[in-house]
Specification:
Largest sheet: 3 strands, mixed
Strand order of the largest sheet: 1-2-3
Order of helices and strands: HEEE
Number of helices: 1
Shape: elongated
Strand content: 5-15%
Structural class: alpha+beta
Distance between the termini: 61 Å
Number of strands: 3
Radius of gyration: 20 Å
């Protein structure tokens, strides 16, 4: 179920504060965040985020196509190791 349109998209207030501070200073360092559920706002475009993956941080550069998605979508928490392999059986002759 999605969030109510009356409330608007969820953007972490601390994260928005960090973005505004970085825009004023002109700094281009990656912003460390644990707020994976935060929606990417148009103000985020052009900034780099270090999104927590559970064990480490993944750097994500925000582009216009990412607006409206959540930060966690761009830092997967699980590593795909492939599907099960098909192993041929050798039948023993008796």
């Amino acid at each position: 179920m999605s969030r109510s349109t009356k409330k608007g998209p969820y953007i972490d207030p601390k994260l928005m504060k960090k973005i505004m501070k970085q825009k004023d200073s002109g700094d281009k360092a990656a912003i460390k965040t644990w707020a994976r559920e935060s929606v990417v706002a148009p103000e985020f475009v052009g900034h780099t985020f270090a999104v927590h993956q559970g064990k480490n941080f993944i750097e994500v550069f925000i582009s216009e196509g990412m607006v409206g998605h959540k930060l966690g979508e761009f830092a997967p928490t699980r590593t795909f190791r492939g599907h099960g392999r098909i192993v041929k059986r050798v039948l023993a002759k008796t």
